Amino acid sequence: MLFRAAVRQSAPLRRQALTPLARRSVTTDAASSHAENVPQEDDKPFTVRLSDESFETYEIDPPPYTLEITKKELKQMYYDMVSMRRMEMAADRLYKEKKIRGFCHLSTGQEAVATGIEHAITRDDKVITAYRCHGFAMMRGGTVRSIIGELLGRREGIAYGKGGSMHMFAPNFYGGNGIVGAQVPVGAGLAFAQQYNEEPTTSIVLYGDGASNQGQVFEAFNMAKLWSLPVLFGCENNKYGMGTSAARSSALTEYYKRGQYIPGIKVNGMDVLATKAAVKYGKDWAVAGNGPLVYEYVTYRYGGHSMSDPGTTYRSREEIQRMRSTNDPIAGLKQKILDWNVCSEDELKSLDKAARAHVDEEVAIAEKMPVPENTSRILFEDIYVRGSEPKWMRGRTVDETFYY
Predict the structure, then answer these.
(1) Is there a domain that residue 346 lies in?
(2) pLDDT confidence of residue 255
(3) CA-to-CA distance for 195 and 190, rounded, in angstroms?
(4) CB-side exposure of 11: number of CA atoms within 13 Å?
(5) How far apart are CA 72 and CA 70, in angstroms?
(6) E strand residue ranges, 191-289
(7) Domain membership flag for residue 337
(8) Is the pTM of this model over 0.85?
(9) Residue range 131-155, pLDDT digits in tens
(10) In this predicted structure, what is the pLDDT of residue 162?
(11) Is residue 390 part of a domain?
């Protein structure tokens, strides 16, 4: 009793006011890098100095702020991003013409993430992502015609017309996955296979900020850390999970810290060069046996969550226009190419024109692809990899059997 009385009479504890530490935040400026002494030769490497605001880190040293690159690769990066955007714009048009049905998630504005990642890894590395996957499918080797053909439901599509917008596959690209967050543990499994087979490669496992609170994401983190798997988890933070802002959905919006016991890196995902530098650094870390990393790619989508979402009910048109005009990844790389005299403005226009013409030609071919035959046989095809089918497959009812 005396103790309780003493507690009641004691003065309440006062929380000391702490002066917040000044913390540098990651920029989304797409043209913040610098380069000097750019050589005349297309294939001779030179050094690019990235912005000091390209990265933030958690329990790990930052990637180098310098990057070796060539004129040839810069031009290829530009071509890739222009092609990707042109392809997504074609998908937008075809959806509005009602030639594409069902779900359709576009990545317009986020091109630097897929492009930067692909330019930092090799074809032997593995990539798996969520349903905003068209750009990744293209960067992994899928043709524009096969991707658009898939969206149109044609048999010559990248998944034979059965996957649609959310399920596309290419060599060492495991989708395109429709269930929110479900690709993350699958990606950890890919990394386990790489480790088991003693392959000097890594798995890039991507998900959106809307999937970051899924329990299976944290289960995959745990397994990856326990087994020190060579996996780079990456949250593509485009600010909105469907129509909900990150601040309204997540108690901790610093997604690169979500691994807790896994080091993390926050990257300017609007700068293709910063993305490449960060992923290259991470791959070297993982392959050396240091275990997983958690990335956060700070990016922005110009359109809605999907084609059925206008994208303007939960954010202002001014916000979208500001990001388009000041932080666009393609415009940012274009400015650097011109500033560094990588090529002339006329040469860049020719490159731009060639990329657009190629995509337009591929889209036209895709639109002419034949539609699937109206037969039940097609329902049973492509369940297994072609050539590995069993002798027979049970059908929809007890008395229905399909023979291959």
Answers:
(1) yes
(2) 98
(3) 9
(4) 3
(5) 5
(6) 203-208, 231-237, 240-241, 244-245, 264-268
(7) yes
(8) yes
(9) 999 999 999 999 999 999 999 999 9
(10) 93
(11) no
User: Number of folded domains in the chain?
Assistant: 1
Residue from 236, 247, 240 nearest 310 by CA: 240
Helix (H) or strand (E) holding 47: strand 46-49
Phi-psi region of 46 (alpha: psi -120 to 50; beta: other; left: phi over 0): beta
The Cα 394–Cα 343 span in angstroms is 60
What phi and psi, each to the nearest 5 degrees, are found at residue 215? -60, -35
CA atoms within 13 A on the CB side of 118: 21
254 token code pair = 């610093």
- Reported as a pLDDT band with limits 50, 70 and 90, residue 376 is confident
DSSP 287: I
In the structure encoding, which two tokens stand for residue 351, read together?
Answer: 């490159």
Residues in CB range of 158: below 8 A, 6 or more apart: 137, 142, 143, 146, 147, 149, 150, 168, 169, 170
> What gap in Å lies between CA 99 and CA 90, rounded to an integer?
11
* pLDDT tens digits, one per residue of 11-55: 444 444 433 333 458 989 988 899 989 999 999 999 999 999 999
Q: What's 83's domain CATH number?
A: 3.40.50.970
In a domain, 401, yes or no: no
Q: CA–CA distance from 253 to each of 52, 212, 248, 285 (Å)?
A: 21, 10, 9, 25
d(CA 400, CA 392): 11
Amino acid at the residue 361 = E
Q: Give the mean model confidence (pLDDT) for residues 214-235.
A: 98
pLDDT tens for 317-340 read 999 999 999 999 999 999 999 999
Query: In this structure, what are the phi and psi dihedrals at residue 180, rounded to the nearest 5 degrees?
Result: -60, 120
Rounded CA-CA distance 32/51 in Å is 6
Separation of alpha carbons 5 and 8, rounded Å:
5
Output the CA–CA distances (angstroms, integers) from residue 73 to 41, 115, 116, 205, in the order listed: 12, 11, 11, 24
Domain membership of residue 271 as a residue range: 42-309+322-357
Enter the tokens of residue 319: 């916000």
Distance, in Å, from the CA atom of 213 to the CA atom of 208, rounded to the nearest integer, reads 10
